[in-house]
Design goal:
The structure holds two protein chains of two kinds.
Chain A (H helix, E strand, L loop, with lengths): L19 H27 L10 H4 L2 H26 L3 H31 L8 H32 L8 H30 L3
Helix pairs in contact in A: 1-5, 1-6, 3-4, 3-6, 4-5, 5-6
Chain B lengths: L2 H7 L9 H6 L9 H23 L5 H23 L7 H24 L7 H26 L12
Helix pairs in contact in B: 3-4, 5-6
The chains are: A mainly alpha, B mainly alpha.
Amino acid sequence: MATHVRVVEHGAPTSTGLSNAKLGMWAFLASECLLFGALISTFLLYRGRALPGTPTPKQVYDIPYTSVSSFVLLMSSLTMVLALAAIQRGDHGKLRVWLMATALLGMTFISGQVYEFTRFVQAGLTVRTNLFGTSFFILTGFHGAHVTGGILMLLTLFGMSLDGRLPTERSETVELVGLYWHFVDVVWIVIFTVVYLIPTGGK
Amino acid sequence: MEVGDQSRVIEGTARETEPTAIAQEPELAAHPGPREYVMVAVVLAIATAFEVALYYIKSLPHGLFVGLLLFFAVLKFSLVALWFMHLRFDSRIFRRLFVTGLILAITVYLIVLVTFGALKAPWLLGVAAFLVALSVAWLLRRARTARSRPVVVSATGEHG
């Protein structure tokens, strides 16, 4: 029986001609849209539910500070894609520089989030204070866990590159981690707008 | 037919990293270079600056404020997805896979938010219904196209 199979020059043949690993990553990211969609919707449903006397978004948010954090994460997407471009042209020195830069920017973002959480707790907002606190910490905490996972992947790639286990032919590994990293970035773009700016800004 | 000839007529989506794939699937293109990436990053930074500036303009009507912020968020989201994630340059299968998940999420959660009163705009249910209808129409069109596509013998006869 005839089959739809394409011969892929590098790697095993697949019925689509596409890398299964990359296809799997895109399917995973598509499912992540639903996960973060649920968390953001929960936040939107509960953001006005602060018990009298407990902190509200307007009282605890520090928009200039979060704007800088957002900018840091946004620029980490640039360094990530530059790392991919470097390995694709066989420049392993630059690959390591950009991978480490991305990991450091990610760590800066996470450090900023830990500092922000600490300040919120000091202001009396914990995960148990009110529904706003619960949904806020769960949403941003989940995102932070994703960023932390991304940092671990980046550091693993850096170690593999130092070890000589990341040749140019394996550039797809960097691309897969890059897709994950950029996704974490686009999720933050939505969170920054919907969770931080819209509820507290405007007239 | 020789195996080499057969491989040239095999249908399907070509692997985006193969130079020959670009010729076989016209929509595929080579990934951009560092210069273009930096330009995209500059646009992203400017969009973020506009967002933060909007936050401090207290005279803006709330509707306009929300609309402009959503516009900048969609712009930034699209730039990262299309350029940094290469959806603009890679196979359309990846694009469709991701957009399906995205539309599904937007539709489901718009319905949830309107139903539970978090969004006080029933017309959003219309937007959700439109997105669902669009997705279903696209899936049906794809199914019809797939049925009418000629079956071609592979070079190896192996399943991927």
